Amino acid sequence: MRILITNDDGINAPGLEVLTEIATRIAGPGGEVWTVAPAFEQSGVGHCISYSHPTLLAQLDKRRFAAEGSPADCVLAALADVMADNPPDLVLSGVNRGNNAGENAMYSGTIGGAMEAALQGLPAIALSQYLGPETQTLDDPFQCARAHGPEIIRRLLAQANWGAVSDYRLFYNVNFPPLPANAVRGLRVSPQGRRQDSNFGVVPYSAPNGRRFMWVAGGSQHAPAQPGSDVMVNMEGYVSVTPMRADLTCHHSLAALDRALDPDLPPIDTDQLPDRKIEVTESR
């Protein structure tokens, strides 16, 4: 098996070393593991691509490349250039330092890399390690992902649906709980959750030259979410597996919205609409 790995923490991130080990075990003795990862940290870039400027690609070693771009850029670089003559059988993204459960999934470059691979028609899995008080005392905070990652990937490859749903190919988001490997309670297939009263925000900062800057700060990663969601099963000690697709449509709202908006409604004659006065308050 030929496996492409990427991440959003950067080419030198410890989680990428963990993923290299996992991928090597999955690929087997006759397999190959190729790395195309961001030259610098790209956390929080989501599914961003460098559409308006070129991306520098540098070879660091045999089957190891760094791109000055996002995880999605790295996948594109691998498929269009590095591995163009013989594309990968599987794309793995991670192992992220920190969870990509709940609302974090919307910002995650780790998931962005897996999503781009799925859009390109390839099986893809994003892997992230939830951190907490119990991982802080470990010599290897990625111990849980390192120990359980290979078996979960094997199960997904053998049993999961790798086809398309509503024209978009599925990919999988795996989050490992913030625990030592031997304390994991099992695996749960779970939907993406949302932490209650925990959002990203901004911390403003004034530089010595008087210019205004800001730091983007995340909310509590241990705030509760819906029972059974990825967030909650992680905090209860389980590995979460969430099937995803690059389709933001709220499908269960389509029929009701169609009825509400009445597709047979005739066009409005704007000339017959009453005049509206808009009050403008001058800013001071």
Automatic annotation (TrEMBL):
This is 5'-nucleotidase SurE. InterPro entries: SurE (IPR030048), SurE-like_Pase/nucleotidase (IPR002828), SurE-like_sf (IPR036523). Its cofactor is a divalent metal cation. Residues 265-284 are annotated as: Disordered. The gene is surE. The keyword Metal-binding applies. Nucleotidase that shows phosphatase activity on nucleoside 5'-monophosphates. It comes from the Bacteria.
